[in-house]
């Protein structure tokens, strides 16, 4: 009997020649756009970054996501439709960037959109939910897709986040150790890299989920550009102390959190306290910046095994000039953009989902106790395949 050809045989052949193009695609906790990175890969890993782009959501999806992330209940019907439509949007975004650069697409790693993530105190145990079904991504992209990465980590006893640290040793291979990589997305998380030791990583607390939420409420803007308004304000010491008393800041790693803890409801409580204190918008925004920076400084002092040589910034918060200055002041560390180490601050998360998809295709385990608490040996993600000979439809 003739042995059937494995669906990933074409991918493995291109990996053997070092010619495979792998995409990483996601929408972060800020849900402001679809991020896509393209890399060239072989059996020895990622060899080069080829392209990065940020694609807007279709307007109807942007409205739906904003409402859900701001606390609107999600029915079963809405969840089913949303995971379908997000899958199509992620697949089309990956295909569009590949087409724009005249590249084929051999594999996609799709994180999806997180709509719920446990905060470490869920009585029933850790759980998470990312929408954007991998089968719809595969149909729209016309390529095999690895998705739903967090579930295998949870099943292995982990927090399911922050997964980025599993790839940071590769992304920052040439950066001097010890090094702390700080991601300032909706949630702040840190990776500590030291010579001869596995990476250490954990979520710290709110970042853009709070700062952007305050800007929408107080300024009527999606964010405080460059932190310009916050820079004119003064942090309120009493409110800052109240916010820093949140128990998540004291909990030791491994730990992770999300918008259910530091999302719209948390922002509303901050605004209510600020109103009771009769604080002007500039002081509320300045207090938010101080909260993010002090949370990072305290976490580095308490939970990192040694002082890093520098704090390397990734994510949208790296463009908040006031936050960058406050981080430098409160941590007393050199604070630099990841771009100085060859990693686009906006592209890091999309890049590591391309890396994780490649590791899945090669059967390489990724889980580490020092990152999420998961037992060693888990291959992350689930595989979805497009039909044989399938040509993706136009958007």
Task: Assign the CATH architecture of the largest domain.
Answer: 2-Layer Sandwich
Structural domain tally: 2
Radius of gyration: 21 Å
Largest sheet: 7 strands, mixed
Mean pLDDT: 93
Strand content: 15-25%
Task: State the CATH class of the largest domain.
Answer: Alpha Beta
Please tally the β strands and state the result: 12
Low-confidence parts: none
How many DSSP helices? 14
Percentage of residues assigned to helices: 25-40%
Per-chain topology:
Elements (H helix, E strand, L loop, with lengths): L8 H8 L3 E8 L6 E9 L2 E11 L3 H11 L6 H25 L6 E11 L10 E4 L2 H8 L3 E3 L1 H7 L12 H4 L7 E6 L2 E7 L6 E7 L1 H12 L17 H8 L2 H4 L8 H4 L1 H13 L4 H23 L7 E4 L6 H11 L3 E3 L10 H14 L20 E3 L11
Parallel strand pairs: 1-4, 4-6, 7-10, 10-11
Antiparallel strand pairs: 1-2, 2-3, 4-5, 6-12, 7-8, 8-9
Would you summarize the structure shown here?
The chain has 395 residues and is an alpha/beta fold. It has helices spanning 9-16, 59-69, 76-100, 134-141, 149-155, 168-171, 208-219, 237-244, 247-250, 259-262, 264-276, 281-303, 321-331, 348-361, and strands at 20-27, 34-42, 45-55, 107-117, 128-131, 145-147, 179-184, 187-193, 200-206, 311-314, 335-337, 382-384.
């Amino acid at each position: 009997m003739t042995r059937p050809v494995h669906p990933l045989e074409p991918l493995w052949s291109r990996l053997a020649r070092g010619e495979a193009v792998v995409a990483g695609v996601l929408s972060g906790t800020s849900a402001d756009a679809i991020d896509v990175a393209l890399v060239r890969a072989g059996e020895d890993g990622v060899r080069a970054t080829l392209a990065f782009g940020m694609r807007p959501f279709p307007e109807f999806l942007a409205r739906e996501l904003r409402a859900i992330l701001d606390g609107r209940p999600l029915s079963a019907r809405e969840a089913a439709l949303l995971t379908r439509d997000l899958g199509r949007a992620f697949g089309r975004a990956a295909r569009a960037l590949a087409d724009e650069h005249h590249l084929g697409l051999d594999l996609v790693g799709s994180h999806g959109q997180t709509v719920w993530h446990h905060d470490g105190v869920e009585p029933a145990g850790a759980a998470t939910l990312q929408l954007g079904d991998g089968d719809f991504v595969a149909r729209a992209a016309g390529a095999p897709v690895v998705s739903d990465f967090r579930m295998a980590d949870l099943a292995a006893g982990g927090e399911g986040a922050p997964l980025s640290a599993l790839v940071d040793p590769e992304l920052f291979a040439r950066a001097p150790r010890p090094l702390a990589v700080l991601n300032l997305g909706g949630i702040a998380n840190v990776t500590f890299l030291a010579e001869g030791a596995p990476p250490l990583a954990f979520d710290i607390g709110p970042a853009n989920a709070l700062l952007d939420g305050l800007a929408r409420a107080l300024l009527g803007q999606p964010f405080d550009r460059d932190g310009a308004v916050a820079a004119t304000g003064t942090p309120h010491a009493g409110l800052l102390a109240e916010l820093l008393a949140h128990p998540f800041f004291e909990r030791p790693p491994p730990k992770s959190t999300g918008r259910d803890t530091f999302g719209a409801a948390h922002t509303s409580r901050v605004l209510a306290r600020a109103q009771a204190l009769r604080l002007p918008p500039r002081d509320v925004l300045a207090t938010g910046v101080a909260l993010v920076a002090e949370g990072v400084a305290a976490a580095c002092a308490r939970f990192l095994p040694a002082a890093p040589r520098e704090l390397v910034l990734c994510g949208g918060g790296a463009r908040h000039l006031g936050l960058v200055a406050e981080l430098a002041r409160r941590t007393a560390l050199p604070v630099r953009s990841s771009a100085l180490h060859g990693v686009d601050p906006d592209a890091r998360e999309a890049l590591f989902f391309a890396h994780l998809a490649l590791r899945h295709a090669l059967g390489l385990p990724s889980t580490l106790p020092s990152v999420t608490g998961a037992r060693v040996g888990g291959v992350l993600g689930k595989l979805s395949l497009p039909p044989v000979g399938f040509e993706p439809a136009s958007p």
